[in-house]
Amino acid sequence: MTTYRWRIVVLLFVATTINYLDRQVISLLKPTLETVFNWTETDYSHIVMAFQAAYAFSYVVFGRLIDTIGTKMGYAIAVSVWSIAAMMHGLATSTFGFGVYRALLGLGEGGNFPAAIKTVAEWFPRKERALATGIFNSGTNIGAVVAPILVPWVLGAYGWQMAFVLTGLVGFIWLVFWWMSYENPQRHKKLSSEELVYITSDAESTTGESIPWLNLLKYRQTWAFVLGKLFTDPVWWFFLFWLPSYFASSFNLDLKKPSLPLIFVYTAATLGSVGGGYLSGYFIRRGWTINRSRKTAMLLYALCIVPIVLTRYATSIWEVVGLLSLAVAAHQAWSANLFTLVSDMFPKNAVSSVVGLGGMAGSLGGLAFPIVVGALLDTYKAQGDITIGYNYLFLLCGSAYILAWLCIHFFAPKLKPVESIER
């Protein structure tokens, strides 16, 4: 048996890494851009919201598009759009311009996860999907690890404009490898017959017309995924866009230099993503049901995020790094399993559309949360202690996952697969 399917995961991992590298650049340049453009925390939150609104819309559009035209072409379109948008940030001359280019970036980047999750559903049996998802999803953290090393160096050597341009160019290199390497398993010339039999061992249908996403809203399983994303995605957006400035304001971290605390935090997230995907698969191999395996793992991860509320009592930056590392690792482990629930419950020709709906919900939550973040931080910044604002935000983050787990269990108590869906 060959292992060609893992080469596909490598492509997904690299694309996800580029996706998060491109979106992370602005958070690391935030102190510089605040000086250049006189941004307040509210100004920055509006730029983040422009990205989130476009990202939410893009999730639904690409979810439907990828189920219609296929993964290969859909993914290529998404990467092309977001790479061009990333480079265009270097042309911005105003806060409004940044908002426009962030929106365009969001329109492209929303295609990454619908395409990647559908690819995993096409290329892996159920018992390996959480692990495969965890591996490619760890690219979200590798991008966040690479950015604190790469961006300050480019900023110092070439200026903030080139930081956007150079990171945007990387996506076009990936496109070449994607177009040369990817095809549906049933038509792939390099795939052995033994591996194809293994991939299709779950006897799931890989054919059928794409399904209108409005029809998917009739099912409780859809709402289990949608609410899971709605309550927890905003926490990850907060970690991604505000952690650098949190360390800068609370611990005087110099973001113009490679940031070791940020590297530690996002490296922990990488380990959580892969390890979290492995754990539920291990339970399945031990004979547990999919329902028991996924939910036990996800409950453990939800509980691991609760200690983030203790950051208010930390007395050193490394105590905070430890708490945040545990939280982001648990989030990525949670995310790997949450995405896998879609292919556990839905036929393959509906996976991308359901992921699109959930991604839209998560992005809308991420659109609303910056309003709270910006208001809290500006209020306590004006009072001379912005750290208090962060303490309240960590309290909200720590409780979100328990609520999300309860919603998933209520709407999909047994993770029962949807056998047929009306078109």
TrEMBL record:
Ranges for the Major facilitator superfamily (MFS) profile domain?
A: 8-416
Main subcellular location = membrane
**Membrane-crossing residues?**
47-66, 73-92, 158-180, 223-243, 263-284, 296-314, 354-377, 389-412
Keyword Ligase on this protein? Answer: no
Q: Which InterPro entries match?
A: MFS, MFS_dom, MFS_Na/Anion_cotransporter, MFS_trans_sf, Sugar_P_transporter
Gene3D superfamilies reported for this sequence: MFS general substrate transporter like domains (1.20.1250.20)
GO cellular component terms attached to this protein's record? membrane
**By its UniProt entry, which PROSITE patterns does this protein fall under?**
MFS
Source superkingdom: Bacteria
Compartment(s): Membrane
Q: Which Pfam families match?
A: MFS_1
Q: Give the way it sits in the membrane.
A: Multi-pass membrane protein
Amino-acid biosynthesis in keyword set: no
Tell me the keywords, alphabetical order. Membrane, Transmembrane, Transmembrane helix
A molecular function GO annotation: hexuronate transmembrane transporter activity
Protein name, UniProt field: MFS transporter
